[in-house]
Amino acid sequence: SLQTSKMSLKVQTSNITNKNDPKSINSRVFIGNLNTAVVKKSDVETIFSKYGRVVGCSVHKGYAFVQYSNERHARAAVLGENGRLLAGQSL
């Protein structure tokens, strides 16, 4: 069942995390100091989906953005993951 839920997560998550409407900006999380040599987009989605529905995720060299459907989820993710050690680097 884990496999199935991961596949459905893939389908609904877009690469678009740069929309500029206020609601989108407030529900977007910047993830800095990310070891992108090791950590992939699917890993980021899995980690951050526990805080709420991830509607977008974009991974760049050394950082990523996660777009939630609402601001409350974004705030929870920041509180929960800030300073977390992931692949040897503190987020």
TrEMBL record:
InterPro entries on file: Nucleotide-bd_a/b_plait_sf, RBD_domain_sf, RRM_dom, RRM_HNRPC/RALY_subfam
Residue span(s) of domain RRM: 27-91
Protein name as catalogued: RALY protein
Region (Disordered): 1-20
PANTHER family assigned: HETEROGENEOUS NUCLEAR RIBONUCLEOPROTEIN, RNA-BINDING PROTEIN RALY
Keywords: Coiled coil, RNA-binding
Gene3D superfamilies, alphabetized: 3.30.70.330
GO terms assigned for molecular function: RNA binding
Family: Belongs to the RRM HNRPC family. RALY subfamily.
Gene Ontology CC terms: nucleus
SMART domains for this protein: RRM
Highest taxon in the source lineage: Eukaryota
PROSITE patterns: RRM
Coiled coil: none
